[in-house]
Write a structure and sequence with these properties.
By secondary structure, this protein is α+β, with helices and mostly antiparallel strands. Helices cover 45% and strands 20% of the residues. The strands form three sheets. It has a seven-stranded mixed beta sheet.
Amino acid sequence: MKLILQIALSILLLSCNKSKFVKISGEVIHPTHNYVVFTKDKIVFDTIYLNPDNHFSVRIPVNKYNIYEVIYGPDSQYIYTEPNKELKLKIYSENFHEKLNFFGDFVEENTLLKKAFIKEMKNYTSFYEWYDLDYNTFKSKLDLLISEQNLEFNKLKQKPYSKSFLEVMEVIMLYTLHAKVEEYSWFKLHLKGSQLKIDPKIITENRKKINLKKDDLFLLEVYRDILFLICDNNALFKGYKLLSDNHTASALRTINQFITNPKLKESLSKELLIGFFKCKYYNSSIEKTVKTYEQINTEKAEKSFISDYLNDLNLAKKGDFLPKFELKNKQGIKINSLDLIKNNEKALVIFYDPSLNINQYFSKHINWLIDRNSKIPITIINLGDTKKFIKGLKTDKQYFLSEKNKKLPFLKIKSCRAFFITDGRIYYDYITFETNNFHDKACDFFEIKKQN
């Protein structure tokens, strides 16, 4: 019996030793929030609360290298890790990107990654001035920048970095620059509405410099954005208007052409389709685009998800009266939702689900609005099971759904959704904080000067 137990223990220890994980820990200096959020592939997978000493720690099971996004307040940064390693972070609430420090494993890699992203963000802003240039002038300036980055990347290749890390750096340092030709084309065709005086062969040849066959790299948002940009341009080249049904259907077919991995194809086509929904008010022609999506994808769960999105768009759209439902305030007193907006020419009603862990995003925007005009009627409604309210909001107009209305028929999808109401009717209908369009819409609606 003793021998059997020893053998069983040995097997258990052996299996434990074979398990792979990555540990990410650190501290926040002068914290403004009491938690750090981690996402992978744009999905929040953990929220780590700070201990009394403002430290945090998370252990993540992994099988291979991974790219995570660490989010603190309104700022974020990608980090690179590999199995059975530990990365430590020192996060500063002010000047997040510039001051962020790394310790432990992959310090050099993540420092390079951070600097590359800072440089890419600066390039992103400066390139808008270049898009007004004629193509030959634009391309000569771009080629000079690519040449400089090639030299830097070749230096990295001489060092003992892993192949996976070098692939990540190639995306940020070079692919993002090669994609500027696509951005130039998009800018001319969409924003300027001008004829694109570029030989189509140039576009085709330029795309050969970008390898979109690396499934793991789609964890990087910039890598996904390159694919979506190509999808947009393929449709624009055919003369389809941006966000038209033909345009979106064409973009979905481009994803189908480039991506062979079924799971990844599902994820990318869903992301593109939801982006289409969020940028376009509901009408029956959306269903044509959905049919194209369903022809490309077969996963029942994803089809159900899209169906729920259509439901939410259709049941509470622009021009409709805000649906009536029952709420409770902090004292547990029942309130009719329509009583909160009556006698107000303009009002803002926000629904949020605490499980999404994005409170910090809309808290910042709501407080900014209140600072500009404290008389704006704002109602915050918690859709979750928890009765906790958001701390730090400069309004006490926070409510949760009563037992009678645990599920609202026009809010099947978990999101942080804002309704702008005028005279009881919905004016802006599908505004979410995840799409970063809330601030502009709020400023336009309430006639407030926009934040720089």
